[in-house]
Amino acid sequence: xxxxxxxxxxxxxxxxxxxxxxxxxxxxxxxxxxxxxxxxxxxxxxxxxxxxxxxxxxxxxxxxxxxxxxxxxxxxxxxxxxxxxxxxxxxxxxxxxxxxxxxxxxxxxxxxxxxxxxxxxxxxxxxxxxxxxxx
Length: 135
Fold this sequence. Notes:
The chain is of the alpha+beta class and 135 residues long. The chain has two helices and five strands.
């Protein structure tokens, strides 16, 4: 049921997410989550700033109302679930830009003024790291 992965900064993407609130998959039968993963991988490969961020995937993050969801996490840092993205390069770039700032932050908090425009309004939850709560 669980598969071990590296314990560093990571974007865990739902690979079964819907394309949008109203559309399940594209004309080729591909889910939005799978398309977002493709976009994340393509953008990551084109920019060395993203090399330290693992791209991981799993089926269903249980945020189905908020299609194209990702979980951003790192040891000892507050984690975030974001969603309602279009499965495209612009969204992938915004997610990776935020993830790079997140990875550099001390506790997972990135000042709002440093947020890429493309992630604003996409936060669903924040989760404390094991053994901590956020204040």
